Amino acid sequence: MASPINLFFTFLTIATTFSLLIISPSTASDPDILSDFILPPNVTNPNASFFTSTSFRALLQPSNLTTFNAIKATMAEFPALNGQSVSLAALRFPSATANPPHTHPRAAELLFIVSGALEVGFVDTTNKLFTRTLRAGDMFVFPKGLVHFQYNAWEEAALAISSFGSANAGLVSLPATLFGTEIDDEVLAKGFKTDVDTVRALKAGLATKH
Ligand SMILES: *[C@@H]1O[C@H](CO)[C@@H](O)[C@H](O)[C@H]1NC(C)=O
Ligand SMILES: *[C@@H]1O[C@H](CO)[C@@H](O)[C@H](O)[C@H]1NC(C)=O
Ligand SMILES: *[C@@H]1O[C@H](CO)[C@@H](O)[C@H](O)[C@H]1NC(C)=O
Prior knowledge:
By secondary structure, the protein is an alpha+beta fold.
């Protein structure tokens, strides 16, 4: 019998099913854990030290960096993050340095500029480039899995803090992935519509330069 109440519940069931179907693929994330936290095998009785990292204190020291540098705080460096779906990275850019095009397969990245300025950008799956110049106090989000970069084109050094929605966002750096591995020179030459000598020059440059 199709009473208004029954129709309403039928509608509710259909709507719920649809929203689950629609939402499920986009909720792919670190697995939910069934305990408060996850301990590595060599930690049995944790205290607050286990949940503390002091690695970013290095940022407070004067630095003489000449190349782009990242201090990561992922579950590899900070085991208490395992299962908590968060991580950070401190990105330091001396003048005229870049974090080359790369992706994080498992998380979006929210970048906050602490000091200096950065040109940032990402490319979506239609190959549209979204780029912007950011200065201290600004934030930018790099959607999950998309190729992105940051570049300090200025004389002043820049510092940015990036947060990730994964304890292990992963890094695929395009130069290293493409020209720092054993992918056949012929495959790369065809892929980039160039010749093997050019591919070898790119590989050699990547192997020797920072
Ligand atoms: C546990 O092992 C890791 C990796 O070997 C090490 O870095 C860490 O200091 C160890 N923790 C303790 C409390 O021994
Ligand atoms: C906390 O645990 C660590 C590693 O097990 C130990 O070195 C440290 O002394 C402990 N701290 C306190 C306040 O108990
Ligand atoms: C930077 O400073 C540290 C110590 O403050 C020193 O060990 C290191 O050699 C310096 N690096 C460069 C490139 O000058």
